[in-house]
Amino acid sequence: AVEDRCHGASIPVEMEFTPTSRVSLAGCKNVHYDLIFLLDTSSSVGKEDFEKVRQWIAHLVDTFEIGPDKTRVGVVQYSDQPTTEFDLGSYGTQQEIKEAAKSIKYYGGNTNTGDALRYINSYSFSVQAGGRPNDNAIKKVVILLTDGRSQDYVLSPASGAHKAGIRIFAVGRAVLQATSADCRLSAIWAVQISPGSRLTQPSILPRLVK
């Protein structure tokens, strides 16, 4: 569990990071997911890093079997407010998702991670959004790519996601480390990418979602 030092609460999260670029991908294609990429497009991320995020998504898609009865992928981006780029199941092949990822826009703005998580909880895994909430064999996973400095309250929506069976993995650079002065993201912080790591390598997700 990760303790939220601001509020004295803890939420169980999976925490494992292998910084090497070669990790076995076995396992991802044996389990199917409703997988949402939640992308921070705030001003603090920057266009250069956001381009790496788009590339990273394209690499990760290759580790899954994509299809209506297999893994479905959706993308939500947020800054001042969340916006769905495409819903779960909108694209039925790896290539279609890769092409769609290239078109994700960078907006800039504030980092309202809490609002984005509330949006995910209420909409992104619903039947209307292409989710399979009544299928217990499907794992609900959010990969949150962010600079880590949320400007709103995160603990309550993160707790709500956990209770709903949504597994959240936050991925970011060293700035993700929570401090006593800025620990609002610690309830869902799972993976830290060091400044020297290659964000384009799909080396961590298989460890996270098995």
Automatic annotation (TrEMBL):
The keyword Secreted applies. SMART domains: VWA. Pfam families: VWA. It comes from Naja naja. PANTHER family: COLLAGEN ALPHA (PTHR24020), COLLAGEN ALPHA-1(VI) CHAIN-LIKE (PTHR24020:SF87). This is VWFA domain-containing protein. Keywords: Glycoprotein, Repeat, Secreted, Signal. Its main location: secreted. It is found in: Secreted. InterPro entries: ECM_Assembly_Org, VWF_A, vWFA_dom_sf. Residues 34-172 form the VWFA domain. It comes from the Eukaryota. Gene3D superfamilies: von Willebrand factor, type A domain (3.40.50.410). One of its GO terms (cellular component) is extracellular region. The lineage of its organism: Eukaryota, Metazoa, Chordata, Craniata, Vertebrata.
